[in-house]
User: What shape does this take?
Amino acid sequence: MTIENESVARPLTGLTDEQIVQTGEVVKKLAEDEKKEITAAIVQKAAAQFRPAKRRKKGKSKAKKVVVGQIDLDPGLKLLAKVEKVAELNKDQAVLKELAGLREWLQGLAGG
Assistant: This one.
């Protein structure tokens, strides 16, 4: 199996080398059976066979409520600036638009 792009490779993350080889065999068969080119969806479907089943947590969620007045948003805003630079270098306008929205929201929380 030849990986054409990152989206096709993404479902393989976390698999062992042996599982990747096995997934490749399943991908080829699925693509042939469906008479389609290899897509991320087909790779995801094949890779799912080699992943352990996700266990659900019992009980209440341990997510914490964040009280803005008690946290410093500066480190997050600095990290956001770095990500914006990378998106700018890659000329990814969709990502830049979403990051701008996140920046506005965070600045609104900070009162600035």
